[in-house]
Structure formats: structure tokens, C-alpha cells
Amino acid sequence: MAILDIKLPNTILKALRLPQNNPRRQQLKVLRKLLRKARFTEFGQQYRFDDILASKHPGKKFQELVPTFNYNKIYNEWWHKTLEGKPDICWPGKIRYYALSSGTSESASKYIPITNDLLRGNKIVMIKQLLSLRTYEGIPYSSISKGWLTLAGSTELQKADHYFAGDLSGITVKKAPFWFQPFYKPGKKIAKQKDWNKKLQEIVEKAPEWDIGFIVGVPAWVQMCMEMVIERYKLNNIHEMWPNLDFFVHGGVSFEPYKKGFEKLLGKPITYIETYLASEGFIAYQERQHASGMRLVTGEHIFLEFVPFDEKNFDADGEMIPNPEALMIHEVEEGKDYALLISTAAGTWRYLIGDTVRFVDKERSEIIITGRTKHFLSLVGEHLSVDNMNKAIQLASEALNISIPEFTVAGVPHGNFFAHHWYVACNAKVDKDKLVSLIDNKLKELNDDYAVERRSALKDVMLTVLTEQQFLDFMKAKGKVGGQHKFPRVLKGSLLEDWQKFLDGKNIS
């Protein structure tokens, strides 16, 4: 039984047949749909959604009447009411589910509202991505009919008085449609497991019973899972266990630093598919084989705005100013970094998601993720993005034929000036002086501002080689183990202090 032979609900079939209009028209249609649905909510009444709908230019009117929000602002002013069980706050009805989202820089979890409307939009995007695989050349499409191993968060959600909370991946699996269940691995019992180490062990024990064609998850945990299967059954590669494994769907972090180590575990080449599925919604996905970017979801359930990521709109700490310049999709330019504002079918309005993106093909609405608004280094004007860091690590590791699955960077004082301190995970023997020199030189080639500052106020670049386990142990000590948690590429403030204490063998909170 092929997954695409399943009879889908009529509402989803109708959505899949929507014509492909231009992105601007699609986005305005989505905005109007969101506004009409939420016009009678408290948020919609306060910010005059009826007036926006009546305007000849609803996009501009929306930006004029509705302020921008970060998490703390929208939670303190609006979302806290929904957690108390109050209906019709930012979206019609009561919010029954919340995705818990937290970066390592945040001590408390963020409660992101999840609605059936949002999940339905996510499902439609997932199916569209599956359909796009038919255009891939040299790929056995039959692999889609095999098992889908999804390394997701626990489906055992936290229950409160008025809601359930957990990882978005866990909520999605728990509410997955009936037609997907026969393909889904590791199954409901293992999916409930909250302890990630136990979950991986149980997956390893079940591995011989499955015929896996797809693996979905964050690269670090998928790689660890495959290593455990290979070690447990004394295999040469993962394809000796799963010969039909042809696809790896990944997202959340750049795959390039993991790719070299990942491919050592394979018996044949597989197809990598990048997705941009955040707790707030399914934002983009790789639509074409060998595409350099992901296609933004412009016609379903998310309205997108783009704030130029520059000194006019963000301060030195990555905080957005109150009334930033915000562009619609037809106003952007290729090659520039933008911070994303999203409005979704879950009552998320003009919300700063925290990621920065760059258009690599405006006509196709294809973007790459370049970093986070707060995860960048610019101590003296070097403007070093996560995209620069990922590329430098990739090029340096290829030059030395080593795998660097994790890394992070900190800006530190250097006399009266500054330096960068790199921490990299590498389990092989490596000449750290040669490695840091390669990283430094590659960054000079990739970033003109960095090259200039290396001749002035950025006086030195240092490097410490650690094991991958040390990175994992730090995350565990911070209580952030699992597929939704990624090690930050830039360390600042209290997080840097905790990292330094951890490396010195001291207890951290």
C-alpha cells in the first residue's frame, strides 16, 4: 500500500488543488483568510481587523494598525489569557494544545499555541512536499511506501487544567491522521517515551523488525541513532539493516557540519530534504531536487513579513526596535538577510520568530536560514552570521577530512580589544592550530567585514577541541535533551558563563 494511494479527506484534497498564483496574491489571500477568521476575537476587535479587511491595501493597513510582538510581549498581553482557559483571545475558541519551545538561552519554556487550523495547514504542506518528490530523478519513489522513522518528542503530553503541552513533533504525531499510522515508526508505545536515551535504546531493539525508507529528525539525534544500530548489530553501515532507506528529512539546524560524519554511516547515497518546521508552523520546505533553498509556504496558513536585519531595525543585542521596517514578500531582495515576522492560524500575530533568512531565488520564493537574531557575532563590526560559521566549518572539515558535528563560538576580551573563541566537537585526532587557521581564513573569504576587523580590533581567534559527548552533556545539564533542542552556535551572557563553568567541572543551574 503506497502512502499516496490513501484516500485523503476532501478538505485536504481541495487545498492541494489550489492554483499556484503569484506569491504576493497568495499572501494577501492568506492574510484576509486569517483576519476574517479572527475578526471577532479580543485581539481582532482591539486592532480593528474589520477596518483592515475593508481597506484597499490590507497588507499595509495591517502593518499600520497591528504592532509587532516578540514572545514576552504577546504572552504578557494576550497568550497568558488562553492558558487560563479563556476563549476567543487571539484565535476563535479555546486553545487546547501548546508547543513547548525553548532555546538554550531561555530558562523557561515558551508556550506556543497550536490549533487544529494550524495543524491542518502543516499537514497540507507535508503532503505537497511528498508530491514534489515525484519530480526527483533517480530516486525510487517506492521508498515513500516504506516505514517512516520519526525521531520526535514524546506524545505523552503534560496535562494542565485547561490544556495539554509538549513538543510540536509529539503533538503532531499524537494527532496524525489515521492513514499515516501504518507507516509511522517507532509506533505509539515508544513515541510516548520521554527519556531520549531510553527511546533510542528501544528503537535500536526494534530496528530489525522495520523496513525504513524515510528518516525524519534533527541530524545529531538521527546520527546517534544510526550509530547505535550499527554498533548493536555489528554492521558496516545502516543500509545493511534498512536497504530501502533513501530519504533523510532534516531541519532545525544546518546539515552541512554533520554531513561528512553522517555519510560514513551509509552504504549508498541517499536524498537529503530540508524543511523549516518551527513550533509556530510549517514555514518552508525543499521543493526541488538539488535546490539551493527552501520554498516558502505562501498560500496556506501563514502570512509572512520580512524585517531587514540591520542596525536600523535591531540593536547590538539583536533586539528589534518597536516599529521596524517590515516588507511583504514582493518587496524583498535576493542576497539580503531578513528577520521573519509571522501571523498564523493559531493567533500568532506579527510575531518575531527569531530566525533570519535570505532569499536565494525570489521568483521561486526560495530562502535559506542564515541564523538567529540573537545568535550572531558582531563585537567590533565583523557581522558574523551563523551561515558564515556553518560554511567555514564545512570547508575546514572537508580540507582536513574530519567530521565536526557540533561547534559554538564566543566573543571574548583580548587586552583592550576582542577575540573569538571556537569550541568544536571532533572525535578524531586533529591539528587544532591548522584547524583554527583554516576556519579563520575561510571566514575572511566569506565575509569582508570579518576580514577588515581581523586586521584591526578583532585581534585573535582561539580554538578548543572537545568531544561530541561534552556538548551533549552540557545540554543534559541544562535540562535540554531531545530533538527540539539545538546547541546554540553563539554563546553570550549567562549561557557563556555556564559553559565555562561546565568545562571547568563546576555545577551549573
Automatic annotation (TrEMBL):
**InterPro entries (UniProt xref):** GH3, GH3_C, GH3_M
Instruction: Show where the GH3 middle domain sits.
Output: 298-361
Organism field = Sediminibacterium roseum
- Report what the protein is called: GH3 auxin-responsive promoter family protein
According to the entry, every stretch annotated as the GH3 C-terminal domain falls at 388-492
